[in-house]
Amino acid sequence: MRELIYYVATSLDGCIAAPDGTWSAFADEGDHMAVVVDEYADMLPDHVRRALGVTADPTLVDTVIMGWNTYTPALDAGIDSPYPHLRQIVASRSRVSTSPDVAVTADPVATVRDLRGDGGGGIYLAGGGALAGTLIDEIDRLILKLNPVVLGKGMPLFGGASYADRRFRPTRTRTFDSGVVIAEYVRADV
User: Fold this and answer.
1) DSSP symbol at 118
2) pLDDT digits (tens, 9 = 90+) for 118-169
3) Which helix (H) or strand (E) holds 64?
4) Residues 185/64, Cβ–Cβ less than 8 Å
């Protein structure tokens, strides 16, 4: 079955962005970037892949689902298809796509469940936190880029999620001189 993988940068206090949606507090340089490029290149937007010289075909995921607020910066930069190497889906109840390469869903939970029935690779949950909160019970794997910063306030890792005891089991943790820790978890069978 296809995995839903939430791959995201986060602060030590669980914020994936500042209150204004920016993520400039997170390290985008350092020794951890070699791992990002080597192991998670599928999850980089096309303009970043090109800038880094990444040409490999996706191997980890073949689909991306993101919230409208995650998609908006690409649109603002004139990019209507940020992940052309992946099947692209944007979750929104009120917006429509202007790109034939980007589908829109008003029901991301049903969409993820339908995608699991299809053959293919993993499904990358690109964010944001509100969408992750909606899909929290569908997430199979977490890949967190923990940045050595405390924001105090910002967009939460799982915005709006209801309380429940959801367990994940650590599978791999790597610490880098940059201070970033890449921690991987899989959903634990309860």
Assistant:
1) S
2) 889 999 999 889 999 999 999 999 999 999 999 999 999 999 999 999 999 9
3) strand 61-67
4) no
